[in-house]
Write a structure and sequence with these properties.
The strands form 12 sheets. Strands 11, 12, 14, 15 and 16 form a 5-stranded antiparallel sheet that branches. This protein has a 5-stranded mixed sheet with strand order 26-35-33-29-30, with no helix packed on it. Among the domains are: 104 residues, Immunoglobulin-like, CATH 2.60.40.3710; 76 residues, Immunoglobulin-like (Sandwich), CATH 2.60.40; 100 residues, Immunoglobulin-like; 97 residues, Sandwich (Immunoglobulin-like). The protein is 10% helix and 42% strand. By secondary structure, it is mostly beta strands.
Amino acid sequence: MKSVFQFLILFSIIIYYLSNCASISPPGGGPRDTIPPVLIESTPENKSLNFSGTSVKLTYDEYLKVENLTKQLIITPILKDEYDFKIKKNSVELIFKEPFADTTTYTFNFQEAIKDITESNVTLDNVLAFSTGDYIDSLHITGKVLDLFTEKPVKESLICLYKINDTLDIFNSPPVYLTKSNTEGKFIIENIKNGRYKIYAYKDANSNLMCDIPKEMFGFKRDSIELNSNLDSIVMKIQYLNMQELFVQRDGPTGNYYEVKTNKPIVSYNVSPLNDYDTLYNNFGEDKKTIRFYNNIGFNDSIPFILTATDSLDQFLQDTLYMKFRETKREKEFFTISFSPKNNSKIEEHFDGAFKFNKPVKKIIYDSIYFEYDSVTFQHINDSLFIATKNTNDNIEFEIELFMSDYIESLKKLDTANSTKADPANRQKADSKSNTKQNTKFILHLHVKKGAFISVENDSTDAFVNKYEQLRSDNYGIIKGKVASEHSSYTIQLLNTKFEVVSEIKDEKSYIFNNVDPGQYKIRVLVDNNGNGKWDPGNIFNNIEPEDIYFFQDNLSIRSNWELTDIDLSF
């Protein structure tokens, strides 16, 4: 009995080891699989004619997985009918509920949807074309998509073709032909049928095959394209632009105020009372979509007025509204002030200052605003220097010529004279001391006393003191050049590496950017083609393209005390 028991134990051990030896495990380490799946068969075959089936099947040389097929797969011409798909080991099949249209060339671009199951290598043979007729449409369009304001490539944007005689466009219907730009912004639409088309490009963020403004960038070509031969190197420039009609979204009392809110930002507005009220105090909210009114009419009256407003596209709004305030226990908003240039900035003799308030200003105490050179030397800003924004009175600017250089020079002369008078033999020593004093930073103080500004709600601003240092040009650079252009109206912009506008100059045939911080820059020119005094972004509904934009001189390098000359612009 004991021998039988021992035999059973020994037999179990042998079976255990044999089963483990028989199992196959992938070897650890080794090179990673970087070879994409290879297409070995397709139904129909690529470039085949007279296809009459209702399914498309691709078979590769290894096991597959499919990711985001509905987003990745582009079928042209667009099919409105739905399809089912299934994956079986190394094949992918699409089954359509309706037959394909007669005498039509179809292109299936799977992009990055099909991958191997092990390392997610994307298939290379991922485009299939076939015809339900006896010929393949062979025309193509190639090009690239760029950001209008940066000229950077825009990846994964849709490029679309619509038949010229259709009333369809990117805002109401999917296109006939489409493709997607790659990481370099380049694109190709293949197997297009002869004809005339409108071409668009846009970022389809929600994958609904339509452009949703203002959330998605878009662009278009004003002129249709006649496709009798291939079209190469077309450039599509896209931008964010809110083309919605301008209207009043809501109006009414809000806390202590009456507010009007539009559906999109506005550039300017005007308020015209329809009764004896001469002044209705109001100003912009922070988002440029809200107009706030302040109560100087009490709580009993309802004041009719006409509001007119304009947005950046020159769309016009006019509406008759009724202003009414309601009593509330809410606290009024605190009266705030900001000033430009900011504290600790470097400034020139010609000083441009700007106060910005969250409420309209009713009164200014000019004696409370002045520059301090020292404890006995001051420079006041009188009322003749102030310019307030029309109507709203919440932005107040001024210009003044400072006398910093004269003041510093007088200190130097006084210091030299005192030192020489005390000891004529020490003249050289005195000159050395005065040079040292000249190189010492001079700080100018701008004082704004408490109560300098009083708002329409009778509250006043807090005091503040800003410190400024005289700007020394040898710490900065200069960029200058000449302009050769047939255009008479344009804006030359100096951009930093973030495409932010550092400075701009209008309509100059010889331009110069002074006091440029060390760094890298480029130049952009906005052309006022229609001569209305501003650059216009276009209007797709009126088939008007954006006005011209030119880029020049990538990576202009500026160093301290450095001058770049002859940076000429031709456009």
